[in-house]
Design a protein that fits this description.
The protein has about 100 residues and is mainly alpha-helical. The chain is built from 3 helices and 2 strands. About 5% of the residues are buried. One of its GO terms (cellular component) is small ribosomal subunit.
């Protein structure tokens, strides 16, 4: 089980990302547009730098929804390999059976 503080910090980052998504996208579009004047692009990059760092999508860590584990994460199932195995052995994941040969 991951520390509660790490899980909560990640949730805050996700909320900030959602809050600033439109503003960030508009500023990035201005910076990348080659047709706008260089002064305007520079001002947009400065405004982008003033936004909170945790509002960037890159800073969100994929974590297991069951245990909060950051490693061994399956995106499709939103859980770690360990939680997947435990729930699979208990028969709580439909269609998943333990292999044997």
């Amino acid at each position: 089980m991951a520390k509660t503080s790490s899980i909560e910090k990640n949730k805050k980052r996700a909320a900030l990302t959602k809050q600033y998504a439109d503003k960030r996208a508009a500023l990035k579009a201005t910076v990348k547009n080659q047709d706008t004047p260089i002064e305007e692009r520079f001002k947009a990059s400065l405004k982008l730098a003033e936004l909170p760092r945790n509002s960037a999508k890159v800073r969100i860590r994929n974590r297991c929804e069951v245990s909060g584990r950051p490693r061994g994460y399956y995106r499709k199932l939103k859980m770690s390999r360990i939680a997947l195995r435990q729930l699979g052995n208990l028969g709580q994941i439909p269609g998943l059976v333990k292999s044997s040969w």
